[in-house]
């Protein structure tokens, strides 16, 4: 599927949503039909997922983002309808080279499930896969609605960033987690705090502040046994409930670097709510329609394309492999490890990139496997051209992780194929040239065998016949790959003629002159072959430089995205530190500052990423690239 046609083709295949994930015997399973659709998508994807309590209108919200009245199943009963995770791919008119993937998830707290493990699995997978996470809440932001997000406090236990985790493992969440969007549904209260009107974003941040602890004065002394000379202020013990209250807010603030909020009033009268998906905009509350359009515009124009480690874009094909890796880990009871899954994805993608590029190259080169008029320089030009085109295919698909070994692998495989193909073409050309040479030299050899030239004036006739034969041979083998080589070998093997000509003692001097002329021709042929080899090496060097230039652009683009994401994460932690300081939470501010310094070090390391070091690992390419 072409880049420009991917979105359109996806819409044709997905007239309605498909279930992506379902639960079978307590384990998550993937729907092969949905995976097949995703695998055909070559464009980067904006992955928008919605989570929230059961029966709160998540599916209706996703249909609005899809621009459709119907799609994800919407019911007005008390029974939860969506099970597992459903997907729907849509085009993005404002961004023709990207695809919108909507994920509608099973509702939280469905009493029919009986336990929370299914909720945890669904939401962990949703966080791992999405680039924008929408939490669909009801009426207002309060402790109860935040409690529905209690699973975020388990993230550090249930998600592992590195294959060898350390104390800072969860600090990388901020670079990887999706953007967080809180949607308040059926809001009836005024957006007002302490008598001042606020925006939905300000309302969200206000409700994410930590609860103040009580302060008590405790007397202190400079040394044991001395009289009390002063007092210091310390936090009193806070209740477990307050600790839980603060921990939940810390997790949201620390792990979701980008947050925003949209507030929807009740869309229409209670009587009409059952037919909500059937209603036109004119039948809905004006403010509801306005806020709905604000959310749609935000999602459709937002640049939050799904990426993984090192800034790699996620296409439909990559999304499938990543989902498989996470689900397999979770099905085995293991904590999903981002680094391991991304490494596995990179290995699959890079090997597939090699296979795709090599197949293209072999198919193209095989079209010229049996030519009768292909010179070595033409074959070399063809090799250089098709190699560059093959690397264009390769570099569009590769992922940075260990890609240098796949670059070398592709180069070596193409070279091996070229040598094998060249040897076959040379063998066929050699046979044709030898046939032409035998035809042109047959009468000369016959005359030599019968002693025809051993007579007065014989050497002159031989010279004339030889010149004529070589000219005819060169004419017939003008475009033959082995024309010069076959002739050169023939001239090197002519010594037995010289032996026969020595019988003509009278003409020995003249014949020696003739031999000198033939040696000049042989020397010319050898110089021509050396020149062609030098031209081949120059052309190959140019090809290698062009290949590495394009790969460099690709890798530097990904590195730039990774650096930008780290910079955003740094700015987020700096902002959180300042907020904690304003709230008087110095311990939290210090923790945020430690995270900031950790991200700053990663940012500096990423900025120092050197293509030259990467390049030097790829043996066989010119150091001048």
Task: Kindly describe this structure.
The protein is an alpha/beta fold. Helices cover 55% and strands 12% of the residues. It contains 20 helices and 14 strands. The protein has helices at residues 6-13, 32-39, 58-66, 117-129, 143-147, 155-158, 173-176, 200-207, 240-255, 286-301, 316-331, 338-366, 376-397, 403-450, 458-476, 483-492, 495-501, 508-582, 586-607, 611-616; strands at 18-24, 27-30, 45-52, 85-91, 99-105, 132-138, 179-187, 192-193, 196-197, 215-220, 230-235, 259-265, 307-308, 312-313. It has an eight-stranded mixed beta sheet, sandwiched between helices. Strands 8-9 form a two-stranded antiparallel sheet. A two-stranded antiparallel sheet has the order 10-11. Helix 4 (117-129) packs antiparallel against helix 11 (316-331), helix 13 (376-397) packs antiparallel against helix 14 (403-450) and helix 14 (403-450) packs antiparallel against helix 15 (458-476). The longest helix is centred in the last third of the chain and has 75 residues, at 508-582. It is elongated and about 125 Å long. It starts with 5 loop residues before the first helix and ends in a 9-residue tail after the last helix. The model is unreliable at 1-13, 75-81, 214-235, 502-509 and 618-625 (pLDDT under 50).
């Amino acid at each position: 599927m072409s880049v420009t046609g991917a979105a359109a083709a996806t819409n044709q295949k997905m007239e309605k949503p498909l279930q992506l994930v379902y639960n079978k015997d307590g384990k998550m399973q993937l729907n092969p039909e949905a995976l097949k659709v995703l695998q055909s998508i070559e464009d980067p994807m904006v992955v928008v997922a919605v989570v929230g309590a059961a029966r709160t209108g998540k599916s209706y919200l996703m249909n609005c983002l899809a621009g459709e009245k119907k799609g994800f199943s919407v019911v007005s009963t008390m029974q939860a309808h969506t099970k597992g995770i459903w997907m729907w791919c849509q085009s993005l008119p404002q961004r023709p080279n990207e695809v919108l993937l909507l994920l509608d998830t099973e509702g939280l707290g469905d009493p029919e499930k009986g336990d929370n493990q299914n909720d945890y699995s669904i939401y962990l997978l949703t966080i791992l896969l999405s680039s924008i996470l929408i939490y669909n809440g009801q009426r207002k932001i309060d402790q109860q609605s935040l409690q529905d997000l209690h699973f975020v406090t388990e993230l550090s236990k249930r998600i592992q960033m590195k294959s060898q985790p350390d104390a800072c493992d969860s600090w990388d969440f901020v670079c990887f987690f999706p953007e967080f969007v809180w949607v308040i549904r059926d809001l009836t209260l005024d957006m007002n705090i302490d008598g001042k009107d606020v925006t939905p974003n300000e309302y969200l941040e206000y409700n994410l502040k930590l609860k103040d602890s009580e302060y008590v004065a405790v007397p202190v002394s400079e040394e044991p046994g001395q009289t009390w000379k002063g007092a210091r202020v310390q936090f009193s013990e806070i209740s477990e409930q307050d600790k839980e209250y603060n921990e939940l807010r810390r997790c949201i603030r620390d792990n979701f670097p980008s947050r925003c909020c949209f507030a929807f009033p009740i869309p229409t009268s209670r009587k009409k709510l059952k037919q909500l998906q059937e209603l036109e905009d004119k039948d809905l509350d004006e403010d509801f329609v306005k806020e709905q359009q604000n959310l749609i515009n935000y999602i459709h124009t937002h640049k939050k394309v799904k990426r993984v480690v090192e800034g790699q874009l996620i296409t439909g094909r990559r999304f499938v492999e990543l989902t498989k890796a996470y689900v397999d880990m979770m099905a085995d009871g293991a904590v999903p490890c981002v680094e391991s899954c991304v490494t596995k994805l990179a290995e699959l993608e890079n090997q597939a990139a090699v296979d795709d590029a090599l197949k293209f190259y072999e198919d193209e080169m095989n079209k010229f496997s049996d030519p009768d008029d292909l010179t070595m320089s033409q074959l070399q030009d063809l090799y250089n051209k098709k190699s560059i085109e093959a690397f264009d295919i390769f570099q569009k698909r590769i992922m940075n992780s260990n890609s240098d070994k796949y670059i070398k692998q592709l180069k070596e495989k193409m070279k091996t194929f070229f040598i094998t193909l060249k040897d076959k073409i040379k063998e066929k050309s050699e046979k044709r040239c030898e046939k032409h040479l035998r035809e042109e030299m047959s009468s000369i050899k016959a005359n030599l065998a019968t002693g025809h030239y051993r007579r007065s004036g014989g050497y002159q006739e031989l010279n004339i016949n030889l010149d004529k034969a070589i000219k005819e041979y060169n004419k017939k083998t003008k475009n033959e790959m082995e024309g010069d080589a076959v002739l050169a070998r023939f001239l090197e093997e002519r010594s037995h003629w010289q032996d026969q000509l020595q019988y003509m003692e009278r003409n020995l001097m003249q014949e020696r002159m003739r031999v000198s002329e033939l040696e000049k021709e042989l020397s010319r042929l050898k110089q021509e072959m050396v020149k062609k080899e030098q031209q081949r090496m120059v052309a190959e060097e140019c090809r290698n430089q062009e290949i590495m230039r394009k790969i460099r652009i690709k890798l530097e683009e990904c590195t730039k995205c990774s650096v930008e994401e780290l910079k955003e994460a740094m700015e987020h932690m700096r902002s959180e530190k300042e907020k904690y300081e304003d709230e008087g939470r110095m311990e939290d501010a210090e923790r945020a500052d430690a995270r900031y310094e950790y991200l700053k070090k990663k940012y500096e390391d990423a900025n120092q990423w050197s293509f030259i070091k990467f390049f030097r690992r790829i043996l066989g390419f010119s150091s001048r690239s």
